[in-house]
Amino acid sequence: MSRLREQPTTAGRARRWWTARRRDQLAGYLFITPQILGTALFVIAPLVMVAWYSLHEWNVLAGSFEFVGDANYRQLLDDPGLPGVLAATGVFSLGLVVLNLSLALWLAIMLNRRFAGTTVFRTVFFSPVVVSLVAWTIVWGFLLQNDGGINGLLSVIGVDGPNWLRGEATAMGAVVVVQVFKNVGLNMVLFLAALQGVPRELYEAASIDGASPWRQFRRITVPLISPTILLTSIITIVGSLQVFAQIDVLTQGGPGTSTTVLVYYLYQQAFDFHHFGYGSTLAMLLFVIVLVLTIIQWRMRRRWVFHEN
Amino acid sequence: MTTRTRNRLAAAGLAGVLALSACGGGGDDDGPVDLRMTIWTANDAHLELFNEIADAYIADNPGVASITFDPLPFEKYTSTLTTQIAGDNAPDMAWILENAAPDFVSSGALVPLTEKLGGTEGYDLDDLEPATTALWEADGELYAYPFSTSPFGVFVNNDLLTDAGQPTAAELRESGDWNWERVIEAAAAVNDSTGKAGLVVRDFDYTGWDNLSTMWAGWGAQAWSDDGTTCGFDQPAMVEAMTFLHEAIFEQSALPGPGSTADFFAGDSAFTITQISRASLLEEDGFDWDLAPLPAGPQGEYSVIGQAGLGVLKLSKHQEEAADFVAFMTNPENSAKLAQFFPPPRASQLTAETLGQTNPLLSPEQLQSVVIDGIATGIVKPSHLGQAEISETVRAQLDSLWTADADVAGVMSQVCQAIQPLLD
Asked: Which residues form the signal peptide (chain B) (predicted)?
């Protein structure tokens, strides 16, 4: 080191600046640059723009763009249709999350056992995930018609099925079930991976101690897969709040407004009714709801997620 | 990081941005321009004719390099067009449906066309039927050419009527029984004896309620008053019409119920209410069919027309060229060509002879009774400022009508309570 200090050269200075550390840093920055650019362009910028639009009255046809301050937010508080929309959104999310997670976990537990045809069943349950959402929904739309396939099957066993998509009591349930079957495979695979990471010795030891299967599930399985439960619940809740295509294809928000969820309502306000400012305000409301729910889940993880406490 | 390195990185970034900007295009303002028109049809025959007209225009106008016809899905046509406008991707010209006409005309979104069309040699603006232009005018200015003025008629499957022991459409008309009561009776008989559907109101499907105006107009009912300020759903004529329809659906099974579908053109129903342009869906070797005007209602004979206008958007960067092409596309010569698909608004071309030359599937008698008489006396389907919001509100309220035990008068009253604030 001392000899180098005594005999500095230009090449030596260049070599000292271009160290392995700097090279690794540059490589790191280059690797994350696309992600940062993507996030900035397609997440941060639209979010800021939507927040800006929500302070304006924007009539697309007339080409007017007028600053109205908090008028759209005051309209939000006075909107008589919004409580019904939020209720429909809550019902959809709750139904989807409960059904999806419980069915996915049950399927994962079943398919985690060794029996002939496991791979086939896994493929069958996962395949809807890779099918186009709109195509999947259109097919279910035909099946759920009054004279469609579902009621045809029910009639074989002597049951007169309801008009699924036209009844206020059945439409939301039908939309939830269609969505559950579409995505349950994804959560099932995540649960399967988590289940296969649980050491077998723990179950063997519990069996020797006389623990029942239910007790083993509660005391061993659930705690050890709790990080996956957290992940899937966050993904499913956020996804459920963003449902749009299923509603648009199956019910168009009806009958009445029973399946008009928040994203469909903001789409109607902005793109059908040309209230882009108010539509943006509803988008901000959705953002806040997702943010709050995610923060709550993240904070609660310390209480029930294994390894976090 | 040294200052020199930082400057180099900044320069590289700026160069990248400039390169991306260059790739983004833009046009040469002095060179030939590219025009784009949004349309809802993707029918090959329609597109072939449009392109033929566009090619003829481009051949004589070197200032226009290309004209693109951009088909958008019918169900989301206006929403998609609005989204394109909001996204700074507005077309130069747009085909506008009649239910969106008040919004487009009153908002100032369209370029006035009176001077351009009137000043084009041989155009003859006075040839346009006044009844066809009313929806597209404001303050004496025409904002869109009523490109397609198409009366609703009833296509009839005579084979199914015969199978059910019912008289054909021609026989019903000849005996003076071409009225709603008798048609619904025949439709119910077809459903009862063949299992096929009776009457299908095309594009209604228990959501597109404005298509029901093709029935309720026979009772003299209106969705709202002529000045658009008073709801008409709770008026006696409308309640009577909707009661008749409700009984036809739920007591007589003359129409497929909610959640059931039937396609007339596939031979699945005896009658369908739709426009003549749908005749292209009929197969040459299919069933024995007929086209008749709308059946008479309690108020006598009537006609309902659907319209589409062709306008130039103010957001177009080439308004002058776009307006010039619209004048060319709708001149008498091209209007006659377009008449094979879209009934023209030109009085001189509204003759059975002219229409017959381009509509080989339809007889002169059918063209006279359904198209020519229909345009002369027809009322346009309901349209209002803020139509999309009104339409959605009515749809949501009417959903409770489509059950067997619905209180028709009560539902109609609810519809008015819901939409009256939107009409004020």
From this structure: 1-24
Q: If you average pLDDT over every residue of chain B, what do you get? A: 89
A252 near B CB under 8 A: yes
- How far is Cα B131 from Cα B128, in angstroms, rounded to an integer? 9
CB B269 within 8 A of CB B200: yes
What local confidence, expressed as pLDDT, does residue A9 receive?
57
With CA atoms as reference, report the closest residue to B372 among B279, B269, B262, B293. B293
Structural domain that includes position B68? 33-150+306-380
pLDDT digits (tens, 9 = 90+) for A151-164: 999 999 999 999 99
Contact call for B314 and A268, based on CB within 8 A: no
Of B259, B314, B397, Cβ closest to residue A166: B259
State whether B312 and B182 are in the same domain: no
Residue A7: pLDDT above 50? Answer: yes
B157 and B146 in a single domain? The answer is no
B106/B208 same-domain check: no
Nearest CB neighbour to B259, from listed A165, A257, A272: A165
Taking an 8 Å cut-off on Cβ atoms, the answer to whether A166 and B206 are in contact is yes
Q: Which two tokens stand for residue B192?
A: 């009862």
Total domains present in chain B: 2
Q: Are residues B167 and B300 located together in one domain of the fold?
A: yes
A63 with B315: Cβ contact below 8 A: yes
Are B242 and B268 contained in the same domain?
yes
First to last CA, chain A: 48
Domain segments of chain A as ranges: 2-53, 74-304
Q: Which amino acid is present at B103?
A: D
Token representation of residue B95:
């085909």
Put simply, whether A18 touches B (Cβ < 8 Å) is: no
Single-letter code of the amino acid located at A285: L
A255 preceded by cis ω (within 30°)?
Answer: yes
Do A101 and A232 meet the contact criterion of CB atoms below 8 Å apart? Answer: yes
Cβ distance of B261 and A252 shorter than 8 Å: no
> What is the predicted ipTM?
0.82
Least confident of A179-183, A276-280, B244-248, B357-361: B357-361
Q: Which residues of A touch B399 (CB under 8 A)?
A: 166, 254-256
Question: A74-304: CATH homologous superfamily?
Answer: MetI-like (1.10.3720.10)
* A276 CB within 8 Å of a chain B CB: yes
Interface of A with B in 59-98 (CB under 8 A): 59-63
Q: Are residues B269 and B179 in the same domain?
A: yes
Q: For A107, phi and psi rounded to 5 degrees?
A: -60, -40
Which of A16, A33, A41, A61 is the best substitution to test chain B (most B C-beta atoms within 10 A)?
A61
- Set of chain B residues whose Cβ sits within 8 Å of the Cβ of A148: 259
Looking at the structure, tell me whether residues B38 and B87 fall in a common domain.
yes
Q: Say yes or no: B183 and B244 in one domain.
A: yes
Q: Is A268 on the interface with B (CB under 8 A)?
A: yes
